[in-house]
Amino acid sequence: MEVKEQVTPTNQLLKPPLQKQIRIKTWTKSTVVIRSTLVILAVLTVYAFFSFDYKDIDFGEAVIATVSNLKAMFVRPHLEHFTFSHALYQVFITLGLAFLTTLFGAIIAVFLGLLAAENLTNKRVSTVIKGVVAFIRAVPTVLWVLIFAVAAGLGSVAAVIGMTFHSVSYLVKAYSESFEELDNGVIEALQASGASWWQIIFQAVIPSSLTYMISWTFLRFEINFAVAIAMGAAAGAGGIGFDMFMASSFYLDIREIGAITYFILAIAILLEVVAIQFKKKLKVNE
Amino acid sequence: MQADYFLKKRRNSLGFLSMLGVVTVLAIMITEYNVVQGFASLPKAVVWGLGNFYPTGESLTKLPDILEKLIETLLVSIAATTIGALFALLFAIIGSNTTRINAFFGSISRGVATLFRNIDVAAWAMILLFSFGQSSLTGYFALFFGSFGFLTRAFVETIDEVSGGSVEALKATGASYFSIISQSVIPSSLPQMISWILFMIETNLRNATLIGLLTGSGIGFTFNLYYKSLNYDVASLVVIAIIVAILFIESVSNYVRRVIL
């Protein structure tokens, strides 16, 4: 009797903590949203695979064909329909399109960005500009280019103007956000000393966010290079992208695509290296 | 000293501006960009747009067809992003400095990601067109490769940023590699990663339009069809449908981001 009684209390003492696990994860709003986002994405993905229009493609065969195509592209690239110097020239055209677009975009975006920053103008102007910019961003670049192509004809004019729209909307967002980070005290101090709006802009706002602006602009230049390749193909604006389009849909020459891809890769990696150096240098200067 | 500083500053900015000017002139020459025509085409485009580029009652009959293509394109973008993210997660764990198994695999995984990221989706589309033809799969794989490359880099940075200390702490307690990954690295960087995934879906929906144009599938092809046949009223309806879809996705992802970050 006595022995038994002694055993039970120790059991009771030991057992409860073992049975009850500590709940680490709680159902807060953010975990609910995270989980439901993941579940929804997974469900949509599975549904997407069932709904695809496969058009009787033998999947395995196509994958094997792709692999052998990739091998031919990268291992045995050649230039058949144009020369190396022509390809280099086309790369420069693509870079030129990207540069012009970025430059125009940056100039326009500085002014719109100033107007869109809440601390520099009133809230209504800022909301209107941010709304317009969000609308411009929602239209894919290629559609802007094609819409302008009707008025200006296919070619570099339509490409540059159409791509500028997107650069402006992207840079206005980036610029205005960096303007808004400026300490309000600085603006107040300058206002108190009787400085005009333009003086505040040029002496305080722009200098303090210049490094941000430059790194965003360079990032946009990288993006614009990729976009310019695509636009050359889709809108006939010339450049290396157009050659690639010709090689893939007219000459059906996979090895030439390989050579062009190497060109594009070289420039893209070069730009990335330059961007990294750029950022390092800017950080040292700060 | 003071005068020198301003002189140097002025000389620097003058040098920078003149360099910019020279490059601009070179770029204008090489691309044969007509500056006057460029600015003149803006008002012309506005006039033309107001005159022709709006949907009419007749074009509304094409709406079900357009919506079907839009949903198809949307699903392709989402599926490509999700599967791309899964692969990117794997490569990012191997490639990140805090969680990599060893330096050799780390640099290989980073190299693969750099390669995939720097080939543009449009280029992928043209490459894949050879073996997959004009089907959804061409667009799917083009978007998948692009998403994979971009997300790997984003995830690597997220992991590096979020989980330095906790990985070290767990290592010290003797936790195994897989429990460190599943208990610490993934949970702590999940909100950031979801934010990147949502951003990628938006980007992919835009890219899908372009890829559709190049490969003849999805909503991009629909637009091209009406655009080339001068049915501008229907083409404008397609544009509006795309805008609505993108703004919708953007607002959903903004909401999710606000809650989880």
- The first-to-last residue Cα distance of chain A is 82 Å
**Largest sheet data of chain A:** none
Approximate strand percentage of chain A: under 5%
Order of helices and strands of chain A: HHHHHHHHHHH
Query: What does the oligomeric state look like here?
Result: heterodimer
Mean pLDDT of chain A: 81
* Range of strand content of chain B: under 5%
Largest sheet of chain B: none
Low-confidence stretches of chain B: none
| Rg value of chain A | 29 Å
Give the tally of β-strands of chain B. 0
- Coarse morphology of chain B: globular
Mean pLDDT of chain B, rounded to whole units? 85
User: Helical element count of chain B?
Assistant: 10
What gap, in angstroms, lies between the N and C termini of chain B? 48 Å
What is the H/E string of chain B? HHHHHHHHHH
Quantity of strands of chain A, as a count: 0
Radius of gyration of chain B: 24 Å
Written description of the protein model:
The complex is a heterodimer of chains A (286) and B (261). By secondary structure, chain A is mostly helical. Chain A has eleven helices and no strands. In chain A, α4 (84-116) packs across α7. Chain A is globular and about 70 Å long. Chain B is mostly helical. Helix content of chain B is 85%, strand content 0%. Chain B is built from ten helices and no strands. The radius of gyration of chain B is 24 Å and the shape is globular. The chains are: A mainly alpha (286), B mainly alpha (261).
